[in-house]
Amino acid sequence: MQNIPRKQTSKGELPVGDKVELQEMQGPLIVENGNLQTYGSTNVAFENDTSPQTAEPITMDMVSMVERDGFKPVEPEQRESWDSKIQFILATIGYAVGLGNVWRFPYLAQKNGGGAFLIPYFIMLALEGIPLFFLELAVGQRLRKGAIGAWNLVSPYMGGIGVTSAVVSFNVALYYNTIISWCLFYLGRSFQFPLPWAECPRYIFPNGSSTLVPECEKSSPTQYFWYRETLDITESLESTGKFNWRIGVCLLAAWILCYLCMIKGIASSGKVVYVTATFPYIVLVIFFFRGITLDGMKDGIVHLFTPDWAKLADPIVWLEAGTQIFFSLGLAFGGLIAFSSYNPVHNNCYRDAILVSTCNAGTSMFAGIVVFSILGFKAHMAHERCVQERYELLSSFSNSSVISSHLTRDIIAKLLNSTDIIVPYDFPECDLKKELEKSASGTGLAFIAFTEAVNQFPAAPFWSILFFLMLFTLGIDSQFGTLEGVITSIVDLKLFPNLRKEILTGVICLVSFGMSLIFSHGGGNYVFTLYDDFSGNFPLLIVAFFECIAISYIYGVTRFSDDLELMTGKRPSYYWLFCLKYVAPITMLTILVTSFVKIAKEGSGYEAWDSESASPMHLEWPHWAHILIAVLILMAAIWIPLVAFLRVLGIRILQDEEPTWFPAEELRDFYGIAPHKVTTVEKWLFCVREEDDVSEGI
Fold first, then answer.
1. Running DSSP on this structure, what letter comes out for residue 312?
2. How far apart are CA 370 and CA 291, in angstroms?
3. 203 near 190, Cβ under 8 Å?
4. Would you place residue 262 in the very low, low, confident or very high pLDDT band (cuts 50, 70, 90)?
5. pLDDT tens by residue, 324-349
6. DSSP-assigned beta bridge partners for residue 617
7. H-type alpha helices, 214-348
8. Distance of alpha carbon 344 from alpha carbon 115, whole angstroms
9. pTM exceeding the 0.90 threshold for the entire prediction
């Protein structure tokens, strides 16, 4: 195993004597002085100190009493840093909490056993989600580089992990901003009364008469507006269709907004997160109080959380729980590593991992309650209309006026379900549970089901504006982290050393905008589905698997534990090490293999829109699309074996990284860390040997 030497600070080590002079602390460790100190930066009060040199010396006992966050190491090459801890937390929460928490988790919960789904969900969170989240934060904070540089430092043979993360992040950023453009389109159209998707448009004949547009009449106003007005969708992937200039303009606006927010790196995006990370929670709370006042709210929430314990025996339920945890936390994209690399070296990344992961899971549950309180109202209204229609039909064929004057609709509904009465009409089936099960996920939930419910609110445009503003802020936050993973990797590799970061960011956004125009054609939604299903899912699972392998088996759990002890003052528990070395990689591999097997058995397809029947239909991917799918997966995943193989042959795609600055000795003295002795548990459980180097980090 390669030991990469540390790069020591230029101003000496912290003296371990009885007294430490104030000026000597300017080097590796300095104390905050009033409001002059910022998070992770140098204390400017020391730069031109004109105070008398007779200041009372500070003893080590006095230093140990100062809160450790007050000590700021001076990096030889100052790296960007967050202005405050709260800024980092908000940025990380904004990155991890995204659209999937609102439009994916509620659907999976009600589909996979309701309340019973929470058991595999939280088990996977504890065994897979938090450990991997913790690992990425620790790697970024320790190595102070983006994903490519970080994994290249862990091992030159593992540098392909970072390249794969960067490629996947770029691919995902392309189509993720398309979702933001759809949100902007709906947001702009929400400033109308009535809402343009509240009723079907009419076709005007030359003589002045009109009729409802047949495609809308056969489906619904919200479906028609989504498929025809917004997407102008074609019949299949093989039909390109015309360019949708409205979505193209919204896509341009989305990339401009993204660039403006990231123009100065975390210096600008860090300011934006104060709004974008908190606003979705404000809107969710507002919708929560609106939802609990609606008829049918109870039916929706009960449907969401009623447990179906038999579902726990279905392995697919556990697979979907693990997959949801993985993608909702934003693991393996490189964004977490990039964000954490701007933290102070002594930040408590363990506490951050617990906080953000728990917040993410809590947001998913809260969003589920909000969504299904609204969908319960929608189902209740649909059921009421159905019962009313049955009531009118029964009254129309009855010869007895008693039926229409004395029987309630509920009694009539029961009569219609009875086998003792023969009705000469094909009555609609009124089943509240089936109405609730019609809830969709993804774009179907956001742009069809939820908008249909909002249509029935008083002051519907106000609620529509709030909803799509929430989706926009949820999406743009996650886009920051995804794109930061790409930009930070390029900057750290010094591929364009003379190019200013704001120009590099602008070039990347411009190129991304040009490439993402493929989603703005009539068949663009099908290309979007293809990217969504394959460009990220499989490569990210592969990245997460090799991340665990790289840390646990190449770098070593002992060295990893040593680094964490230096950064946080304590070693990680055996639980986290066991998860990272055994449980998490097995989980990743299981999800990956099971997903491939499922596709091989059941095939893979997409949902297309049939304009004749005005309904969605399932189509299989054409043969050429399978080639494109293979290219999307391989163009990302191939870098992991390729970099390692070429390295064996002596060919270096990635140049060796300079050893990262890390004040190990200073931190060791500050925390009073003694050399670690290998325990019996470490010997037997983690195969740690006595002769292993337990004192050196990267």
1. G
2. 6
3. no
4. confident
5. 898 889 899 988 998 999 998 989 99
6. 608
7. 214-218, 221-224, 245-262, 266-276, 279-291, 297-305, 315-328, 335-340
8. 40
9. no
